[in-house]
Fold:
Amino acid sequence: MSGLLLVGGGGHCRSCIDVIEADARYTIRGVVDRQPAAVADLLGYPLLGDDAMLASLLERERNALVTVGQIKSAEARIRLYSLLKSVDAVLPSIVSPHAYVSKHAGMGEGTVVFHGGIVNARAFIGRNCIVNSRALIEHDAVVGDHSHISTGALVNGSCHIGNGTFVGSGAVVHNGVKIGSGCVIAAGAVVKNDVPDGTLMRGDQ
Structure:
């Protein structure tokens, strides 16, 4: 199996480790974190150093994955994605064997589909995205780069989610709705109408 470096050592990293192990296409070589002193439990994998070590580590291992989570802002994930691209890393997409991604769907590099996630026909997920546990991306929906569709969120058919947007746990996006870039849709929100760029949305709209 090919080796894989993980960039970011928090709780989201541990969830990614579980999916990567289940996917079984890559061997995790270790974890890189900006603040090594703050890293606690890496489920038995070694901490290899901080971000400054990436270039030298990638001379030996080209595959890497951003394993920092995203709630309010995609800034950290975008920064790390750009850093990895600047040193010519290869960012595979990872799909849990307990998820379903249609053969008619598309997915960009560095995206992870977690356990129970569903991506249906003609949906497209961009680069460096999180489709978290039990999230649904229905037919013909588009999710932009660096976005996070959180646990149990429902993105219905023909929706369009902009770049760097967070859709919280249990949120429901009605059929055909367009959500702009850089938005935060709170947990449990019901989105019935289009949402402009940069919106923080709670409740129903």
In short: The chain has a mean pLDDT of 93. The two ends are 47 Å apart (CA to CA). The helical segments are 11-23, 54-58, 75-86. The chain has two domains: 2-86, 93-205.
